[in-house]
Give the backbone structure.
Amino acid sequence: MKLFILGFAALLATGSAFADTTDTSAVIHDKTGFFIRLDVAKVKSMTDISDQCGVIPARLDYMDHQGREHVLDYQVQGRCTNEN
């Protein structure tokens, strides 16, 4: 019984020693869907689709009104300027 308690205590101590309680990822990766409400206060960067044709992957990096950074990956129809 003492061995069981000692093993359990060691397991708890090891788990808490390796637990990471700090938030290392400050960037929030938003999920895509049919309807998403975005809280965009400032756009940091976005994919340039002016020279692309067809459906291409795009990315929007923005800040919300609480100052948190977000990343949204999505598919978009490019603007084909040289079509025959």
Q: What stands out?
A: The chain has one domain: 22-84.
